[in-house]
């Protein structure tokens, strides 16, 4: 934490020194006498609180106001936000002092507290799980089951049974998933099938053995997706495409820039590339917008086990903006917590033509996608997105052909992925933080 760094700097640089009439005393060396050590500890505590309060004032982190906006605390932190009015000005110093007191506790305290809260949440879920009392035989097995995160339990099932399940006719993909169990979620083996006929051959639960010897049953969740997942390319529709026209059209996900300040169009490799060769860039590099005007030149792209991305350098004189996608604040990673919270997302695809809202269904999923030319390619570690169809109460995709490359933005305006494909139930997105790191780009 910044507060710790500032306080440590003062302790190291000013210990034993006097500035004007202010004597810092000994801040570095532990005292042998108990009374002197207590005095030293008090001075360090006061120093931490003062530093924390000053930092809180600089960034205007008023704990009183923050507690009133726990759903969106970032909207009230900073002097660029709406300023307090009337009596709230008088409370501002007290709120910042309270913030200073809390952050003076140090990062270790908050990390330990977070670990404790997460463990308590997991323990609460395990205590209402019937498997806790039915499938373990001794204390060691019970302890291992309680300590095992749900995603690890589901991963054990996937690792053991994936190949056998994928051999069943009609099965498209197998991965880790989650089932609601009251107010919590438990890990499961999730199976996507083409139709209900394929679903009848899938077992309802699978048994896995833990290292302590206990056997645990992992539930199986079967989802009918209706068809093989396909890359979201189309022969017609607004968006972006390579002049060759071989791979159809897609969507400009975002305008990004590299470390040199050059700007690029970001989309999928199967949108911007100009031929069916997936191992190199095509000779056709001219990238056109939906009106057929040349806007960029294909610069770099690739398809790997977990990515299908490309960038095209914007031509001189071409105007560019991320305004239509609401200028995302930044890029962030997707976590298991997004699945538990069903984090809301929105997508603006060129083919769909309007913003579509949904939520994060899975944070890491393997999907075999049908590419132009009817070739299959499996991409792993994809974000799965969906919504609930109000008519049928089934899962419904957020995208359609021509939306490949569209940016996925969460409800706090952070970009998390780019659409690569979809079926009838789900849309699949590549993790944008991995793309940014691999290509050394940012919004």
TrEMBL record:
It comes from the Bacteria. The chain crosses the membrane at residues 45-67, 87-105. Keywords: Membrane, Transmembrane, Transmembrane helix. The keyword Membrane applies. SUPFAM superfamilies: Trypsin-like serine proteases (SSF50494). This is Uncharacterized protein. It comes from Mucilaginibacter galii.
